[in-house]
Amino acid sequence: MYGDEATIRRILTELGDTWAVVGLSANQSRAAYGVARVLQRFGKRIVPVHPKAETVHGEPGYASLADIPFAVDVVDVFVNGALAGAVADEAVAKGARAVWFQLGVVDEAAYERTRAAGLDMVMDRCPAIEIPLLDQPVPRRSASASRRSG
Fold first, then answer.
1. Could you say which DSSP state residue 95 is in?
2. Alpha carbon distance 73, 83 (integer Å)
3. Of 117, 26, 120, 43, residue with least CA distance to 76
4. Taking 70 as the threshold, does the pLDDT of residue 139 lie above it?
């Protein structure tokens, strides 16, 4: 519901390869750690964003989105749902092109604000699950089905 297949595909393939991962620390037991590794394997530059500003997967961390001294394309959010809306607003202010709320993170008001600001947004999905699916062909309606419905 909060990220149709076309939006997911556009974020993963067209909007740029610099992903700020908010909530990413060097804690290997956290989901963000593994997801960031998958994003790297698929050619994304990850930028750890965490109050500790730790280096993760060889990339220097920053305490906030505002501290990143270069443009980011996508902001991937691994924070509590109650905090996620503020991160989405920071992503808009930063000039990101898209916001991605991880599994279990839903904030409908933030979704509306972010989309109204012109950014693509996905909620309650995981790019580490979605990105390997890009290699699969997009389902297309057959010509006969198109003729019947049109």
1. T
2. 20
3. 120
4. no
Give the residue among 95, 42, 100 at the shortest CA–CA distance from 72: 95
d(CA 61, CA 124): 24
pLDDT band at residue 69 using 50, 70 and 90 as cut-offs: very high
Please, which residues have CB within 8 angstroms of residue 100's CB and are 6 or more apart in sequence? 11, 74, 75, 76, 77, 121, 122, 125, 127
Strand partners, 22: 49, 77
Strand order in the sheet with 18-22: 45-49, 18-22, 74-77, 98-101, 120-122
Distance between CA atoms of residues 33 and 104, nearest Å: 17
- What is the rounded distance in angstroms from the CA atom of residue 22 to the CA atom of residue 62? 9
CA atoms of 43 and 118, how far apart (whole Å) = 25
**91 confidence band (pLDDT: 50, 70, 90):** very high
